[in-house]
Amino acid sequence: MKKLESSLINMVVVLVAVAIITGGLLAWVNQVTSGPIQQQDELALANGIKSVMGLSTLTVSANDTVVQQTDGKESTFIIHKVNDAQGKFVGAAIESTSMGFGGELKVLVGFDANGKVLGYTLLQHAETPGLGAKADRWFQKDGKGSIIGRDMKSAGRLSVNKDGGDVDAITASTITSRAFLKAVNNAYAAYDQQHASADGCSGATVQQGKKKHGHQNPD
């Protein structure tokens, strides 16, 4: 009986030791990799901003977080205000998220100072390869459902043909198409609301962020 109790104690001690060592290793790996991962994410975002704004040289003058109600829920948008090489405000790149077919669809979309769509890129998605994943190019310039150059201020919200709009949905991926357009529509709404808030109107919570990206040189 004593031998059995001794064996059980030894097993517990070994298991605890293994758990402690494993936890320590995981914490160490996380600490070592968190820095490089963050740097890669920041570089990808900086390159994404250049891409959606159509500028190889720019300065992000501010990174504002806007929280507003969307479909009865609080949604958070990050607005990266952009100046050109001469320091002139040219618009903003907005991070916006909606729910697609496979999960969250995170879009970075660029608008000029008057609300025209300059470009976009997908920062994150879990859509079906070959179907919903086509969103990364379907709505680009010369794409079948191109939204580039659309004046959001005068044209209003974007929607697919099935919903009475004039944007061609991705073939066999209407859900993804709706999610993508919703993210773009909400991004513009946050951008427009921020301007309204700056003029003294209410309706959204704006948190001023520190300048994250400095002068971006051409690649």
Distance between the termini: 73 Å
Q: What is the number of beta strands?
A: 6
Shape: globular
Helix content: 25-40%
Share of β-strand residues: 15-25%
The biggest sheet amounts to: 6 strands, antiparallel
Whole-number mean pLDDT: 85
Q: Which structural category fits the helices and strands?
A: alpha+beta
Distinct helical segment count: 4
| Spatial arrangement of strands, main beta sheet | 5-4-3-2-1-6
Order of SSEs, N→C? HEEEEEHHHE
- Rounded to the nearest angstrom, the radius of gyration is 23 Å
Spans with pLDDT under 50 lasting ≥5 residues?
200-204, 210-219
- Write down the oligomeric state: single chain
Protein architecture, described:
By secondary structure, the chain is α+β, with helices and mostly antiparallel strands. The chain contains 4 helices and 6 strands; from the N terminus they run H-E-E-E-E-E-H-H-H-E. The protein has helices spanning 2-53, 135-138, 152-155, 174-198; strands spanning 59-70, 73-83, 89-99, 104-112, 117-124, 205-207. A 6-stranded antiparallel beta sheet has the order 5-4-3-2-1-6. The longest helix is centred in the N-terminal third of the chain and has 52 residues, at 2-53. It is globular, with a radius of gyration of 23 Å. The termini are far apart.
Write the layout of secondary structure elements.
Elements: H1 2-53, E1 59-70, E2 73-83, E3 89-99, E4 104-112, E5 117-124, H2 135-138, H3 152-155, H4 174-198, E6 205-207
Antiparallel strand pairs: 1-2, 1-6, 2-3, 3-4, 4-5
